């Protein structure tokens, strides 16, 4: 009888560590504050969630004046940094836009310079042309062209 009683107590003791072994796993999952994100719809798995500047720093309540002043200075620095980042982005975008426009204008100029021009003096030719040939024809101002 005593041997049977001892075996049940050891079995009960063996069960309790098994339960405790499961609890740290549950606690470790609670430690992760960020929820597990699935695959994004866009398929860009390397992209991360970015915090907006407004959510980065929160105001303090019930703090001493020195802490409040330090906090204000820090907030001011953060705002200046964010403003400078926005300004540089805006400037870069403006420069890119101007460069694109310049390239487009230059490309068009070069195309116009490189064109082979043939003046159609007989309008009856236009009547005889096929549709494909008519699509290829473009009107130009001859006063600007250097045509002999």
TrEMBL record:
One of its GO terms (cellular component) is chromosome. It is found in: Chromosome; Nucleus, Nucleolus. InterPro entries: CCDC86, Cgr1-like. Keywords: Chromosome, Citrullination, Coiled coil, Nucleus, Phosphoprotein, Ribosome biogenesis, rRNA processing. Its main location: nucleus. Residues 86-111 have a biased composition (Basic and acidic residues). GO terms for biological process: rRNA processing. It comes from the Eukaryota. It holds the Pfam family Cgr1. Residues 1-13 have a biased composition (Polar residues). Residues 1-50, 84-111 are annotated as: Disordered. Belongs to the CGR1 family. Required for proper chromosome segregation during mitosis and error-free mitotic progression. This is Coiled-coil domain-containing protein 86.
